[in-house]
Design goal:
The complex is a heterodimer. In chain A, helix 3 links the parallel strand 5 and strand 6. Chain A has one domain: 2-Layer Sandwich (Transcription Regulator spoIIAA), CATH 3.30.750. A 6-stranded mixed beta sheet of chain A has the order 1-2-3-4-5-6, covered by helices on one side. Chain A is about 40% helix and about 30% strand. Chain B has a single domain, classed as 2-Layer Sandwich (Heat Shock Protein 90), CATH 3.30.565.10. Chain B has a 5-stranded antiparallel beta sheet with strand order 1-2-3-5-4. Chain B starts with a helix and ends with a strand. The chains are: A alpha/beta, B alpha+beta. The interface between A and B is medium-sized, with 26 and 33 residues.
């Protein structure tokens, strides 16, 4: 199946969902006013991805600098989709990255993790 | 001629970083965020504070455009007073030794005052941990509003700033009140 690639902007993240490597990454900023519109193709892609029954372990990597509350619900929708794949027996992990000392982003990861069953790793990135 | 120097001095003395009055559009919000990001890069060394201010600002600005229709990015009709009131707002960002301050003002319909007032009161009377639980509950349970806002904005502002929300409502006429809002983001 085709990969999904969207180049990031000042208010939308870089999307690189690679079906071959089973590495799905979301990186950058997510502060659009209309986040539903931005995230819809990602959710649709995940539906099709689940139907291909990937045999390799899937990594969903989230490396966000900022996200607004309107994105927060869409991000949860993405996670719930992945949570569904996990419940259907797929091998999958969500990796939530945050910058060292960014407690807000660390807490946000913990909040999501509390709402899901899928393995959820909260990973600190050291300052460069 | 207007006394620009007096105005300049007043803005200088009050450490005003940015101020705007008029119609709020998505493009405008984008520009304000870009300008403020540059200012913060120059003025603020602490990365955490910088991120908090930016985050809070995003929510404050997007709160201002709850009434903007996505399908209608058109120009304001100067003869439509209701439309003008719905989209018009004021924004002031200033700083002092202790904190950054974001203040916004916009018109809201009188019938919505009591719900908003109740919501802000609830947020202000909630502890940090309860606020976190409330955030998670809304995130998980409540349906999206069609614009994706869904009530989390003010909670997020309170959580990120760690401060109480300051606000008041002034009745303007039979239909509208003016809603003033201010949040302080302490410097580290």
């Amino acid at each position: 199946m085709d990969s999904l690639k969207i180049t990031g902007t000042s208010h939308t993240p870089d999307v690189d969902f690679n079906a071959e490597d089973c590495v799905l990454s979301l990186k950058g900023r997510s502060t659009p006013e209309n986040s539903i519109e931005f995230y819809r193709p990602l959710l649709e892609w995940l539906d099709s991805y689940g139907e291909t029954k990937p045999t390799k372990k899937t990594n969903l990597n989230i490396r966000l600098e900022y996200f607004n509350t309107s994105s927060s619900k869409c991000i949860l929708d993405i996670f719930k989709k992945v949570n569904g794949l996990y419940k259907n027996g797929m091998d999958v992990v969500i990796n939530w990255y945050y910058e060292e000392e960014d407690e807000d982003m660390e807490e946000a990861g913990e909040d999501y993790s509390d709402l899901l069953d899928v393995p959820f790793e909260i990973v600190m990135m050291e300052e460069e | 001629m207007i006394d620009l120097y007096a105005l300049y001095q007043r803005m200088h003395d009050n450490n005003i970083m940015l101020t705007f009055k008029g119609e709020v559009t998505f493009d405008l919000i984008d520009s304000i965020l870009k300008i403020m990001e540059g200012r913060l890069e120059q003025l603020e060394d602490d990365r955490k504070t910088k991120k908090k201010v930016y985050n809070v600002l995003v929510e404050c600005l997007q709160n201002l455009c709850h009434h903007i229709d996505f399908s209608d990015p058109g120009q304001l009709d100067p003869n439509d007073e209701h439309e003008y009131l719905r989209k018009s707002a004021i924004l002031i960002i200033f700083s002092d030794d202790d904190a950054y301050h974001v203040a916004t003002g916009n018109y809201i319909e009188n019938e919505n005052v009591s719900n908003l007032n109740k919501w802000l009161e609830e947020i202000n009377s909630t502890t940090k941990d309860e606020l976190r639980q409330l955030y998670k509950r809304i995130l998980d349970n409540e349906k999206f509003s069609d614009k994706g806002g869904g009530g989390l904005g003010f909670i997020d502002i309170a959580r990120k700033s760690g401060q109480k929300l300051k606000y008041n409502f002034q009745k303007i006429n039979d239909m509208y009140s003016f809603f003033s809002f201010q949040i302080n983001i302490p410097k580290n």
